[in-house]
Amino acid sequence: MRQMDFGTMRPDRSVIVVFSETDLRAAHTIARRLSSVIRQTSHGAGHQRFEPTLSIATLQPSDTPTLLLARLDRSPRRAVS
Question: Residue 44 domain-assigned?
Answer without folding.
Answer: yes
